[in-house]
Amino acid sequence: MLFVGLYLVALGVGGIKGSLPAHGGEQFDETTPSGRKQRSTFFNYFVFCLSCGALIAVTFVVWIEDNKGWQWGFAISTISIFVSIPVFLSGSPTYKNKIPSGSPLTTILKVLFAAVLNSCTYKNSSSAVVNMASSPSNPHSGRMESEQETVKANTTNKTPTRSKSH
C-alpha cells in the first residue's frame, strides 16, 4: 500500500508540474503586447502561489500535525486537493485548448535531435549577442542590417590592447 501511494503521488506531481504551467501559458495571446503582459503576470502569480503553498505546507500544516495529530494534517491536504479540483474544472468552458496534431514521439525526437546537433556545433560566444537582435521577442529586432553588421564587426574585431607603462 505504501508503494502504491508513493507511485500515485509521483504520477500526480509529474503530471501537474509539466502540464499546469503550459496550460496556463497557452491561455494568453502572445502576438499582442497585452497578451504577453498577461502571460507574464500569470507566471508571476503562479510561482508566487506555489511558493505560498509550500510555505503553508512546511509551517502551518506541520504545526497542525505536531500539535493536533497527523490525521488533521492529512485532512487539510486532502480537503485542499478536493476543493482545487472543482475550482479548476469550473473554468473549463473558458479555457483555450490546443488540439494536438501529429505524434508526440516525433516532437520528442525532433527536440532530442536538435539538442544533439546544438551540442555538437561550435558556438562563437561573441555572435550570441548579435543573434539575439533577430529574436521575435526582442523589442529592438527592427534594427537595420547595416547596424547589425557594424555591431558584429565591432564585437569580432576587438583585440586586447596592452597598456604601456614606463
Protein architecture, described:
The protein has 166 residues and is mostly helical. The protein contains 7 helices and no strands. It has helices at residues 2-25, 33-58, 60-67, 70-90, 104-120, 125-132, 145-156. It is extended, with a radius of gyration of 25 Å.
Explain briefly what this protein structure is.
By secondary structure, this protein is an all-alpha fold. 70% of the residues lie in helices and 0% in strands.
Q: Can you tag this structure with a few keywords?
A:
extended; 166 residues; mainly alpha
For the largest beta-sheet, the strand count, sense and barrel status come to: none
Number of helices: 7
What's the helical proportion of residues? 55-70%
Number of extended strands: 0
Task: Give a topology summary.
Blueprint lengths: L1 H24 L7 H26 L1 H8 L2 H21 L13 H17 L4 H8 L12 H12 L10
